[in-house]
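Good day; I would like, with your permission, to put a structural problem before you. A protein sequence and the structure tokens that stand for its backbone fold form the material at issue. The record follows directly beneath this note:
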Amino acid sequence: MPGQSGTAARAPAGGLSAGLEASEASASAASAATLPRHIAIIMDGNGRWAVQRGLPRIEGHRRGVASVRRITEHCARLGIEQLTLYCLSSENWRRPPHELEFLMHLLEQYMVEERSLLMRERIRLSMIGRREGLPAATLEQLDSTIALCAGNDGLRLCLAINYGSRMEIVDAARMLAKEARDGLIDPHQIDEAAIAARLNTAGMPDPDLLIRTAGEMRISNFLLWQISYAELWITDVLWPEFAEPHLDAAITAFAARDRRFGGLSQS
């Protein structure tokens, strides 16, 4: 990626341990000016974590829920404005049916079991992605939890479920095309703001920091429009083992970046 679009750093799993306590203290003490407003995470490595231990892949997903819980709570307490988690991509439907069924069950279970945490930490919940294809029972629990948390004023937790960024951009283009056809918008007035307003993330800040676990150096069709100037932080740590000190290390690295947004350094 061009340097002006954000920088990527790999944090090896073994290289973090010595500085984790210092990183946690540094992130906790960070001022609001240096904290990212919006953190997005590609949660990768659940299956590999399970396979490495001779367990079924679904056990990795089960263990990954614990990481979701602790990272969400930690972001809320740090004062992060938004956390977006890539839960299920539109391409993940190619996985074995029994794994997908388990993932939907796990999501339903999460929606019920985490309500007390969401309310205690005043977390708002939202979803991006297509609802079509998701089980009715899953949507029912998701909608109930979103409604329950609607009045909260803390961290916004956004779950990307059945989400694909190219599909999202195509949907926005179709919407604009229809509006132009119907005379509701002048094609010459279509700009970046018009497109952004028709994305799933309309009204949300763009991510400042994108984290990917399990060491893969790719974006995987996640928030392609929105991460144009995000700072990238890659770690070899698998998602089920990703914990508060790893997030703190990412935030500390973010605070040290010189974000130029295509311009020149202030220094």
Q: What stands out?
A: The domain at 20-27+35-164+243-256 is CATH 3.40.1180.10 (Undecaprenyl pyrophosphate synthetase). The CA atoms of residues 43 and 239 lie 6 Å apart.
